[in-house]
């Protein structure tokens, strides 16, 4: 009899535990359902799309990159951009022209009075076009009578193949003349450049993007990694081919173009250091020496060790960032 009572109590306790667990799970489920929320992200758009700006800047880069300013190499030049004030992205175009002038060896001046030659620039066209092609069923607007029944106002577009293409055009003309005499020196002729970008959808998949502003073909904005070329060091004092506007480069300034103020300061510092050494020598009782004559050496003092170049392998070279020459790392013996 006692065993039956114990079994009955054990079964009741197990049932109560299961009921309690179910109740707790139900309460947690209701609490989670009531606590479900959503997050929001703020989106904003600029006045002009990035694609439009890339197209215009790319067409400008191509047009400026075709200009050959070697006739102005070594000359003091002022860039007159008066006739570009109303052109779209005129600041970018002016800066690109200044960079191209520097790349061809011209010496830019900020004022007309400081220049010997004036480069005047004007633009014939800077703008974008767009067209699209659709193979499929275009969007169709339904009549008002259908709208009253509660049907949609328009049938959606059903494209099999769809292509949209944007293009930008830049046309510029430049000429240079002597500021004092007014005689012409050079003119560029009409320089026309075009950039484009196209998006293609095939059976709803896409966009497949390609064009001059992309590095190859892209799918939904994903681009392949591209290895960058080595950056050259360019000597401004040597005969060389002009550098492309779209390539990175470093320029080594000629040593002869150091400012006279810098040379004068160096000479003044050298003179002051020489006078200081003479006065110090006189105070300590040393015998002053003449320039170009080595002072007498104490026979007890060993001579300084000589710097010897390695006997094997090529002589190391060190490129100076401000001089066009390559100086040997070890002095000649």
Number of strands: 14
Helical content stands at 25-40%
What is the radius of gyration computed over CA atoms, rounded to a whole number of angstroms?
39 Å
What does the average pLDDT come to?
74
What is the number of helical segments per DSSP (H or I, 4+ residues)?
5
Please tell me about this protein's structure.
- Helix 2 (50-65) packs parallel to helix 3 (90-103).
- The chain contains five helices and 14 strands.
- The N and C termini lie far apart (119 Å).
- The model is unreliable at 1-7 and 307-333 (pLDDT under 50).
- The protein is of the alpha+beta class and 333 residues long.
- The protein is flat.
- The strands form four sheets. Strands 1, 2, 3, 6, 7, 8, 9 and 10 form an eight-stranded mixed β-sheet that branches. A two-stranded antiparallel sheet has the order 4-5.
- It has helices at 2-34, 50-65, 90-103, 144-148, 260-284; strands at 76-83, 107-108, 117-137, 140-141, 154-155, 158-178, 184-187, 191-202, 205-211, 218-219, 233-235, 250-252, 317-319, 326-328.
Summarize the structure.
This protein is an alpha+beta fold and 333 residues long.
């Amino acid at each position: 009899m006692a065993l039956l009572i114990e079994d009955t109590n054990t079964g009741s306790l197990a049932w109560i535990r299961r009921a309690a667990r179910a109740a707790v799970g139900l309460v947690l489920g209701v609490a989670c359902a009531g606590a479900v929320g959503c997050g929001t992200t703020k989106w904003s758009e600029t006045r002009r799309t990035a694609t439009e700006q890339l197209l215009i800047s790319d067409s400008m880069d191509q047009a400026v990159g075709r200009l050959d300013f070697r006739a102005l190499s070594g000359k003091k030049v002022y860039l007159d951009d008066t006739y570009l004030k109303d052109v779209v992205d005129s600041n970018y175009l002016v800066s690109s022209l200044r960079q191209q002038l520097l790349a061809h060896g011209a010496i830019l001046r900020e004022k007309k009075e400081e220049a010997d030659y004036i480069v005047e620039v004007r633009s014939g066209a800077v703008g974008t076009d767009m067209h699209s092609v659709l193979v499929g069923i275009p969007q169709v607007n339904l009549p008002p009578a259908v709208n009253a029944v509660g049907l949609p106002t328009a049938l959606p577009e059903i494209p099999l193949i769809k292509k949209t293409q944007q293009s930008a055009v830049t046309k510029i003309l430049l000429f240079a003349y002597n500021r004092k005499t007014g005689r012409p020196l050079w003119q560029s002729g009409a320089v026309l450049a075009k950039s484009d970008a196209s998006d293609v959808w095939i059976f709803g998949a896409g966009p497949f993007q390609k064009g001059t502003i992309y590095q190859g073909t892209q799918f939904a904005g994903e681009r392949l990694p591209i290895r960058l070329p080595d950056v050259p060091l360019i000597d401004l004092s040597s005969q060389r081919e002009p550098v492309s506007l779209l390539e990175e480069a470093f320029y080594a300034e000629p040593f002869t173009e150091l400012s006279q103020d810098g040379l004068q300061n160096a000479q003044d510092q050298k003179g002051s250091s020489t006078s200081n050494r003479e006065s110090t020598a006189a105070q300590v009782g040393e015998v002053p020496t003449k320039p170009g004559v080595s002072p007498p050496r104490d026979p007890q003092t060993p001579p300084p060790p000589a710097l010897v170049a390695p006997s094997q392998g090529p002589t190391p070279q060190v490129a100076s960032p401000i001089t066009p020459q390559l100086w040997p790392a070890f002095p000649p013996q």
